[in-house]
UniProtKB/TrEMBL annotation:
<feature type="region of interest" description="Disordered">
    <location>
        <begin position="128"/>
        <end position="148"/>
    </location>
</feature>
<protein>
    <recommendedName>
        <fullName>HTH hxlR-type domain-containing protein</fullName>
    </recommendedName>
</protein>
<dbReference type="InterPro" id="IPR036388">
    <property type="entry name" value="WH-like_DNA-bd_sf"/>
</dbReference>
<keyword id="KW-0804">Transcription</keyword>
<feature type="compositionally biased region" description="Low complexity">
    <location>
        <begin position="129"/>
        <end position="148"/>
    </location>
</feature>
<dbReference type="InterPro" id="IPR036390">
    <property type="entry name" value="WH_DNA-bd_sf"/>
</dbReference>
<keyword id="KW-0238">DNA-binding</keyword>
<dbReference type="Pfam" id="PF01638">
    <property type="entry name" value="HxlR"/>
</dbReference>
<keyword id="KW-0805">Transcription regulation</keyword>
<dbReference type="InterPro" id="IPR002577">
    <property type="entry name" value="HTH_HxlR"/>
</dbReference>
<feature type="domain" description="HTH hxlR-type">
    <location>
        <begin position="16"/>
        <end position="114"/>
    </location>
</feature>
Length: 148
């Protein structure tokens, strides 16, 4: 496997797999971008719409960083769409397990939505770990998960 050498202004500078992984996806918004791309290729405008609170500058910067890490590629869709989309590479898709486990871990702390919380249905209905029961009512699943 080819070793990716990256020049970054921010690094933990530790010879540790966890530190190197965080160098790649530890910046604010990075894993949330990955979460959005786990559903398939997305246009920049769709990513921006489903990541409320992220500025266009930060989104563009994080996408470039994720591209530089070999986790995301930008490509043009075939006609008639002809839109530019971002999608995860094979290495980026390996982050599904990380996002799933982090989501399961965070479920206990979810509680009730705060008045300022954005909510998107696909955040609740995103793929769950293998063996998880299907969810008929995503809103009820969030509430039930928060109460258990």
């Amino acid at each position: 496997m080819a070793m990716l050498i990256r020049m970054s202004r921010r690094s933990y500078d530790q010879y540790c797999a966890v530190a190197r992984a965080l160098d790649a996806v530890g910046e604010r918004w990075s894993l949330l971008i990955v979460r959005e791309l786990l559903g398939g290729p997305r246009r920049y405008t769709d990513l921006h719409a489903d990541l409320p609170g992220v500025s266009t500058d930060i989104l563009a910067t994080r996408l470039k960083q994720l591209e530089g890490e070999g986790l995301v590629v930008r490509r043009k869709l075939e006609r008639p769409a002809s839109a530019m989309v971002y999608q995860l590479t094979e290495r980026g898709l390996m982050l599904r397990q990380v996002v799933d486990v982090l989501g399961a871990w965070g479920l206990d702390a979810l509680g009730e939505p705060r008045p300022t919380d954005a909510v998107r249905e696909h955040w609740v209905t995103a793929p769950r770990p293998a063996g998880a029961a299907p969810v008929d009512n995503p809103a009820a699943a969030v509430t039930a998960g928060a109460e258990s």
